[in-house]
Amino acid sequence: MRPNRVRERWNAGEAAVSGWLSFGNSYTAEIVGLSGVDCVTIDLQHAMTDVSDMIVMLQAISATPATPFVRVPNAEPGIIMKALDAGSYGIICPLVNSVGDAKALVDASSYPPLGGRSFGPARGLLYGGPDYAQHADATIVRLAMIETREGLAAVDDICAVDGLDGIFVGPSDLGLNLGRGTAADPSDSDVRAAIDRCLAAAKAAGKRAGLFCPSGAVARRRAEQGFDFVVPNSDANLLKAALAAELAVIGKA
Ligand code: 3PY
Ligand code: MG
């Protein structure tokens, strides 16, 4: 089976860097996939994307060296299985608030006996290779998002769930849930402590920790801190920032 570059980075003792796709478009998926990132995450939760966009985006990413991940809208088994069948090598699941939510993620993304994923890997087989079924469970990465008070309170138990590779912190929702705003690189000491707490919980359980970041500088700092999976902002945010900078040069901003 084609290897997962995120796991390769981890096995080499490095953090994996992921692009983040908010446009439901195969061209931007290809551009980000060829940018030098290890991974490209298609966001089906908040982005302007739907399932048919996801399929052509996964096809575009196949033509790049980057490994495709999908952030699903929720832990509903149907969408997790569909993303995997379409060739995603990683699932990032938002709003994981309990051990039950984390187990549901593992269950939907793993074949029996580990889980209850139904067999029909469609594009997964084309992208992964003919031995997909034997290696899928060990190749696919499952990250549970910690981004609420409940998730934070349960983070140790969530990290202990068998088959879960780790957690992915959503700093904006976490800040919002703590009543401290939506900054992606929070200065608030409680939100910062909550992020550090998530990292410590993952490490204590021998699991991986990821984090959405608003820039490469923050992503680098977080990787140096010990995060294993960092996202240096989304395509849409980067386009907005780059355009604003250019417009400022010509006096339009
Ligand atoms: C958050 O910050 O809440 C996120 O979900 C980042 O993607
Ligand atoms: Mg969020």
TrEMBL record:
The keyword Transmembrane helix does not apply. InterPro entries: Aldolase/citrate-lyase_domain, HpcH-HpaI_aldolase, Pyrv/PenolPyrv_kinase-like_dom, Pyrv_kinase-like_dom_sf. GO terms for molecular function: lyase activity. Residues 20-208 form the HpcH/HpaI aldolase/citrate lyase domain. Keywords: Lyase, Metal-binding. The keyword Cytoplasm does not apply. Gene3D superfamilies: Phosphoenolpyruvate-binding domains (3.20.20.60). Belongs to the HpcH/HpaI aldolase family. This is HpcH/HpaI aldolase/citrate lyase family protein. It comes from Shinella pollutisoli.
